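Morning F.,

Quick status update on the modeling queue. The single chain you submitted on Monday has been processed. Sequence for confirmation:
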Amino acid sequence: MVVSTRGRYALRVLIDLAERGDDALVPMKHVAEKHNISLKYLEQILPLLTRNGLVEGVQGKGGGYRLNRAPADISVYDILQLTEVDLTPVACLAEDADDCPLRPECRTFPMWNELNTLLVDFFTGVTVADLMRKPGQGSPEGGGSGA
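Structure tokens below.
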């Protein structure tokens, strides 16, 4: 599994919005400049986060974006499910995968399935609130190293 720049940038944006507070509207331009993300690329990411209820966008003068949920209520898994095509480590575990006739005898399937469970559990256990911690302030409960 490789997490795309889209997923990594979405994480950075959500952490940034979380650090600015509940009511602060942050212009997309400021987020793009701070994180050295192309404004065009960010224009693809923020509407996705808005449509799925993670952020709220306000148009017009003084507008911008802010979190729609508490940082502790947004898991890394929530974000990656939106930004990544597939999070599974092997094709046979993908949601739309055909049933493999070799699965009953496959010696590697249980290992891949366990890895998939570990990944889902890990990313579900790390929240935007966890990622708001600065390096050296302790790691998220899941033991990850951040985005």
